[in-house]
Amino acid sequence: MITRRYEGNRIKELSTAGATASYVYDNFGNVDCVTLGAGGSSCSGTLVQDYAYDNLNRLVSQKTYGQPGVATDTADYTYDALDRVNQEVENHDGTSRTTDFTYQGVTKLVTEEKQSGGTNPKTKTFSYDAYGHRISMTDKDNATAATETFTYANDVHGSVSQLITEGGTVKASYGYDAYGGEDAALSTGDLDDRSPINPYRFQADRLDSGSATATKPATSVDMGARRYGVDTGRFLQQDMFANALGDLALTLDPLTQNSYSLAGGNPVSFVEIDGHMLMANGGGGGTSDPNPSPGDDGGGLLDKIGDFVRDLGDKVGDIADDLGNIGNTLERVGSALRTGARQLGKTIGKAADSLDDLMDKIKPLAKYADRTEDALRSFGSKARKAAKQAAPWMSKWGGKLSKAGTWGTVIGGGIATIGDILQGKDAKESFVRNGLKAGGSIGGSAALGWAGATIGLACGPAAVVCSPALGIAGGIAGGIIGQAAGDWVGDVIYDGGWEKVKDDFSDLGDAAGDLASDAADTVTFWD
Predict the structure, then answer these.
(1) Backbone conformation region of residue 113, classed left if phi is above 0, alpha if psi is from -120 to 50, else beta
(2) For residue 149, what is the enclosing H or E element?
(3) Using CA of residue 471, residue 474, residue 480, residue 482, what is the dihedral sign?
(4) If I label 466, which of 5, 175, 335, 511 is the partner at 20 to 30 A Cα–Cα?
């Protein structure tokens, strides 16, 4: 039974068969060493494994201690410009062996491993199909030049399950648990991990023979970006990307946020392809695609962030287009406003010019208005003076005319009486009737003549004309009214009947109203 203790995402202790190992990490999250015993916090204790890394976080050496203080198995690595291991120098119990690696172009596909030194060095060459799947290996003995060619058989995870000879027999078989540990019941024919026939095993990645000892199998698998420990089921290094967005995606994606776990913590359903990315392998079964890609995982957070950024870019572009259209519209509106303002200014200018012209034409008329006002004032003054001078004369001759009118009325009344008597009418009645008519005519003429003359004086400058005219009109009207009044009195005396009196009074009121209206119109006209 294996017991593990973690701190955060890091494994700190692993216990099995009564022994406990402590894992110590450097400042970059890499496993620095493994010490014997619980609670280890530095590499000064009893070392079991010791690791060293370069400035690019690449593993450059590892040492395995078979006994305290003695490194029985070591391995040192050098890299090419593409971060690929191009040489590994192993030392097992004092025997050194160097392996040089050759790759296909700029890919990570190893085409040759050539060993030198050690016991029974070999040269292994590999061939691939069009999709980059390793399909065969030729194993050549460097001393005798004897060769063997084998074909690979893989399981649904892409791990090598069998090594088949040209004759069709099984040279070796390989079995694994979910995390890449060797399944002894399924593994046969190729059990020496320090000098294996086939170095490619779990997920078709290279099992590092430099991590094997005489007493235990190899524990380190080179997955490209990082080293994986099959003994712990954890990576020796935390996952990270150089760019911030990619590194953030690894942290936020539930499948990769544990930066030491294999295949998002689910190696049954997923396959780790390069130490960074994982892909679905058919939901735990086989994949129908002969060349599965990382996109088969249904889209990790990195892809989703990429899609989001692309969508955001499209939306920003659309917004920019809309803002551009709005800017064009505002520019057109501004141009129209400027044109309108200029036109309005021209119109106002023309109106102002027209007003100036009108004022220039009106100004000469002002002097005529002044002259007219002066003339009217002069006429009014002269008319008032003439009225004053004419008043005595009008009074004198008015009196004479009044007297003449009176005598005319009396004589007319007498003639009318004589005529009535000659016609056989009652002399007394005729005398009374004509006397009342004559008296009423004289009295009415005198009263209304005086009133008309007085009202005429209100005509202002025209009083010289108004006063005599209204006096004459008043005298005539008074004579008529007085004569009618005398006739009415005669009717009352001789004919009787108050109904007729009422009717006569009504007619008299109407006549008085008409006279007052005519007088008011006359005043208004002369005002």
Answers:
(1) beta
(2) strand 147-154
(3) negative
(4) 511
**455 with 470: CB under 8 angstroms?**
yes
Q: How far apart are CA 474 and CA 477, in angstroms?
A: 5
What's the burial of 248, exposed, middle or buried (CB within 10 Å: 0-12/13-18/19+)? middle
Write b or e for each residue in 275-303: b if 16 or more Cβ atoms lie within 10 A of its Cβ, otherwise e: bbbbbbbeeeeebeeeebebebbeebbbe
Report for 196-210, 281-295, 317-331, 499-513: range of highest mean pLDDT: 196-210
207 has pLDDT over 90 = yes
* 299 pLDDT above the threshold of 50: no
> How many angstroms separate the first and last alpha carbons of the chain?
135
- C-alpha dihedral sign at 302, 307, 312, 317: positive
State the SS3 of 289-343: CCCCCHHHHCCCHHHHHHHHHHHHHHHHHHHHHHHHHHHHHHHHHHHHHHHHHHH
Predicted confidence (pLDDT) per residue in 448-474, tens digit: 666 666 666 566 555 555 666 666 776
104-135 confidence digits (pLDDT tens): 999 999 999 999 998 899 999 999 999 899 99
User: Which phi and psi (to 5°) does residue 281 adopt?
Assistant: -115, 25
Question: What is the number of alpha carbons within 13 Å of residue 266 lying toward its C-beta?
Answer: 15
Dihedral angle, C-alpha 311, 314, 316, 319, nearest 10 °: -130
Contacts of 170 (CB under 8 A, 6+ apart): 162, 163, 164, 189
Q: How many residues does the chain have?
A: 527
Helix (H, G, I), strand (E, B) or coil at 250: helix
The residue type at 332: R
| Number of other residues whose CB lies within 10 A of the CB of residue 329 | 10
**Can you give the pTM of this predicted structure?**
0.54
Q: How many CB atoms lie within 10 A of CB 474?
A: 25
Compute the half-sphere exposure of residue 389: CA atoms within 13 Å on the CB side of its CA: 6
Q: Which residues contact 378 (CB under 8 A, 6 or more apart)?
A: none
Q: What are the φ/ψ torsions at residue 300 (nearest 5 degrees)? A: -75, 180
Q: Which of 189, 193, 239 is nearest to 220 (CA)?
A: 193
Select from 485, 29, 460, 6 the least CA-distant residue to 251. Answer: 29
The DSSP code sequence of 93-125 is TTEEEEEEEEESTTSS-EEEEEEEESSS-EEEE
Element housing 443 (H / E): helix 427-456
pLDDT in tens, 211-261: 999 888 999 999 988 999 999 999 999 888 777 787 777 777 776 778 899
Tokens of 363: 């100004």
Residue 297's pLDDT band, with cuts at 50, 70 and 90, is: very low
Strand, helix or coil at 465? Answer: helix
Q: How far apart are CA 505 and CA 438, in angstroms?
A: 20
pLDDT value at 284 more than 60: no
